[in-house]
Amino acid sequence: MAGFEGFDTSVERAWTDFQVRLADIIAAMREDDLLALELGEESTVEGFVPCVQFLAWGAGEVRCEVPSNAYLDPRHRLSAADEQRLVELGWHRPTRQPDDEPDAGSPAFFVDKPANWADQLAAMAVTVFRETWSVPHPSFLRTEAVGTIEALSIDPVELDDEESFALDPGAAVVPRDDEHLYQLVALTLARLFDEPPGDDEHSDFLLALGRVVGFVGPHLDGGEVQVRVPLVRDVSDRTRASELIADLNRRWPHLKFTLTTDRVEVWAAVLANPYVPQHLIDMLEQLFAFVRTVDDAFADRFGGHLEGLSEPDPAPMEVDHGELTLPPPAPQPLRQMELFSDPGEQTLFDEPN
Questions:
Q1: Tens of pLDDT, residues 142-170
Q2: Highest taxon of the source (predicted)?
Q3: pTM for this entry
């Protein structure tokens, strides 16, 4: 039980640190500043993902809102008990429907507090994410800020090795940025290998797979997490090699084999946005099954040499850190807030009269 107690403690610490940073940002908000916290997955046409938004207005006031069922995706709808809990925490019930005439209230659950009540507002927000929507760790949230607080966005929370078990392999997560995607891939690999990968330089992850070496590259700007394994070099008969490549692509439909000049490689990729850990796990299992068939005889059929280690690796499939460097991320425009149809037109927050 000691290990689980340590895990629980680390999760509590992460939420506590997140709440403190959130309170600092709320306290720094100025009129018309907007801060949105939301679950890291895309909203659908059916409604919004769990979120809490803060809007600064007037003389040092902050309105905090939680979307009602009129806005939420059916998967995240509030039960009667959830709604009562929000009231107990300090929110007021919605005063109207989204299409009704504006009033001093809101079509969402709302509360108005002076900015110096930032600690209470932060605690309320964290509680609703944890209790109502069962968000296991603040790393599953993304933040967006508009106004004077843009430079104060909450930094991604680093997870330690034990906290990797808080990662739901089947959950779709929309990475906040390249750093977050890299962290998610690192946590996924840590579930598969005895030694978790390092992340000191944020280069591609290096996988020693028996006689060959593979590279896992999380590239948010390219929209994929790619895995590349060089197989054969110095191919002498490209015509024969092309026939063999075609046969491999038929027999392993989830992998892509390529012939470039005199080299044979195998590639695979999963979507990076949203990122689903189980997709990477399933793809790596396919890759592992194939590389078990790769040996010198495999390279001989291509009239080339095996691209990899001269002897079988004593600890196959051990994760280490590679030497490849991630390409610089392409500049991305600020994604429009989920609860706004237009950045200049408020559809959830209504400035109190």
A1: 888 898 888 776 754 444 444 444 567 87
A2: Bacteria
A3: 0.48
